[in-house]
Amino acid sequence: MFDALRRNRFLVIGRAGMDLYADPPGTQTETASAFTAALGGSSANIAVAICRQGGHATLLTSVSDDAVGRFALRQLAAYGIDTDRVRTVGGQARTSLAVVETRLENCQSVIYRNGAADFEMTTADIDAADFSDFGALIATGTCFAAEPSRAAAFRAFDRARAAALPTILDLDYRPYSWPSRANAGEVCLKAAEHSDVLVGNDEEFATLAGSHEAGRALAETLAESRERLVVYKMGEKGSVAFFMGQTIETGIYSVKALKPTGSGDAFLGNLVSALAQGHTLADSLKRGSAAAAMVVSQVGCAPAMPDAAALNDFLQHHPGNTEGKEADHAHTAF
Q1: Cα radius of gyration rounded to whole Å, the chain
Q2: Could you tell me which CATH number the domain at 2-317 has?
Q3: Segments of the chain scoring below 50 in pLDDT
Q4: pTM
């Protein structure tokens, strides 16, 4: 199944929106008199990361029939993302809007997702897509937070499996999208069990497991249950990946960060891009970690995603990531 990844063609489902950044960097929202706009939304950011690395990404989602929705569509196209599967919806649905700051300490992010347009994705949208065109499916946990998007996301997983495509899930737990933490844990655990590649941080695995103490053990169990790659992220402590008996610890690349946002999207997008290009699992994890460091050290999320030349230059000249331990056989191909 993982052989399909080499097509380097991804169907990404989930949200795209507008990010408004208080300008200049360091400004608090409540004191700002100017803002800069950029493409936002975790799924859109992941798709940008893939395209910047030379891959092909099609985004399947819904946006509102208004100026913000059209902004998202124009930005997606400008980054080279295929928008043929983006459906415009009317009524009271609204494309997500985030008002955020480029500040490392006490960074405020105000998200407007009442009646979010991306939650209007339906099973009909999924059934209209030709899964044979792709090499993998990518979803974020947000897709499962509300109906009809939840049913559509599970349908996408079923269709990907029927087409022998790997399913890639970034847990991406956003409390404001869910009725409760318990509900998020129950639904996302079901989605995780349907995935072939599962990526999340310690807080997200704790949500699935019910406690921080059980989070890492759950990640290991999910990796052992079948041929599944599970990446357990630990913030400044780096990440640990479990796959086919391998345990690979990867540190972070130290940079002067401007903000805490965007790193997860950069990590996931560059991890899967590297795997699709034939890099070893260990090298792919390092490329994801390096891209995450690059994004937090620049303004914006989508605009900060590195292209292949920039990422290679960073890896060549950076002193190296913080020490991680790798199994002796960790450099085998994925």
Answers
A1: 18
A2: 3.40.1190.20
A3: 323-333
A4: 0.95
